[in-house]
Write a structure and sequence with these properties.
about 50% helix, about 350 residues, single chain, about 20% strand, 14 helices, alpha/beta, 4-stranded parallel β-sheet, binds beta-D-glucopyranose
Length: about 350
């Protein structure tokens, strides 16, 4: 093949085209009628409801609208399973592989393998440090964290507490997003810890964003520090774990809790006054952007996206699309419903119905 390629260059484009046809005729190249196929690996279904309730649905809709074949699978937080799914997708002839890594190490192995087989890759939502994805599609994750920090400050100021004690429950330390969220909220909180305006009452990473472990870890923090009056919980799942512990300790509604993802449960907690705020990331925009890139890549195009993110591990600027997150408080939960992200039927159940009515959500 190497000799043929050299010959093609010398012989010029027209001859090259003819020879390429001849060559493809004698190799096992896929027939021209093969539809491009896009593979997507989602991370799990427990660390956040979003992956199955939002990302899957919006990606499916986008691929269907584009008329491409697709295969969306969920690794259920199993790294072995993650690479097995990737291998199967590559064997089954995906043209593009989109992943939400479980950590950068296993993510990188999958991306590198795909790339070596000529499969184009996209880092969806989470950047794989040291990886080789052609594109990254996500939100401005430092801004997500900043909105959480500002939300905590806003809700605490309404309580007029002197020197409130704050605990931080970060996401998974192996998720680059969790690092970026922390960078964002620490930019708001650290100056207040330094000045003595706030007191730090714990700062813990929650392995794999595990909500159950989140509750255990928070309960330990609360036991050793009954003064905690604010919790920077990195997503709605962790926020709900915190709220369940607060409820058990009859402290619900007395501690300010943040979140992220605008899940139905998170929004219910916000409407009920158990959670101060959440961050809405319009996953439809993220899925549409990623699907658009995937379809272009499948056609052999390399669209320019005008933005990059820096991967400090690989020292590489990765072409990126980063969308804008929005802070959601009880008074603008309605916007998330109006956007079609959650339905009134999911949100306004039981005791929440009256709050929905008061908030004009119907
Ligand atoms: C995502 C969040 C999600 C978390 C846990 C992060 O990488 O950006 O939306 O809550 O993972 O799944």
């Amino acid at each position: 093949m190497r000799r043929s390629t050299a010959a093609l260059v010398v012989a010029g484009p027209l001859a090259a085209a003819t020879m390429a046809t001849t060559l493809s005729g004698c190799t096992a190249a896929p027939p021209q009628t093969t539809r491009p196929k896009i593979g997507v690996i989602l991370p799990d279904s427990k660390s956040s409801a979003r992956w199955e309730t939002a990302d899957r649905r919006y990606l499916e809709a986008a691929f269907r609208a584009a008329g491409v074949a697709y295969d969306i699978q969920n690794a259920q937080n199993d790294k072995q399973q993650f690479s097995t799914i990737a291998d199967q997708m590559i064997t089954n002839g995906v043209t593009v592989l989109m992943i939400v890594n479980l950590d950068s190490g296993t993510g990188k192995a999958v991306l590198d393998k795909a790339r070596s087989q000529g499969v184009a890759t996209i880092d969806y939502d989470r950047l794989t440090l040291g990886g080789s994805a052609a594109y990254h599609v996500s939100f401005d994750n430092v801004t997500v964290g900043r909105l959480q920090g500002e939300g905590l400050v806003r809700c605490l100021s309404e309580q007029r507490l002197a020197r409130p004690t704050i605990a931080e429950l970060n996401g998974s330390q192996t998720d680059n997003n969790a690092t970026l969220f922390k960078q964002g909220y620490d930019s708001v909180l650290e100056p207040r810890f330094r000045s003595g305006e706030y007191v730090k009452g714990g700062d813990q990473w929650i392995p794999e964003w595990d909500n159950v472990q989140g509750a255990v870890i928070f309960e330990q923090l609360l036991t050793s520090n009954r003064d905690i009056s604010g919790v920077l919980a990195a997503n709605d799942g962790l926020a709900n774990a915190v709220i369940s512990v607060l409820r058990k300790n009859r402290l619900d509604g007395k501690v300010v809790v943040t979140g992220q993802d605008a899940t139905a449960q998170g929004l219910q907690n916000v409407l009920m006054g158990d959670q101060c705020m959440t961050v809405y990331k319009a996953v439809k925009q993220e899925a549409d952007a990623a699907a658009g890139l995937a379809v272009a890549l499948a056609r052999g195009e390399r669209p320019s996206v005008g933005q990059t993110v820096h991967d400090p591990t690989g020292d590489r600027d990765v072409p990126a699309i980063l969308l804008a997150p929005r802070a959601i408080y009880a008074d603008n939960v309605k916007d998330v419903v109006d956007d079609g992200y959650v339905t009134v039927a999911e949100l306004c159940t039981g005791t929440v119905a009256a709050r929905c009515a008061a908030a004009g959500i119907r």
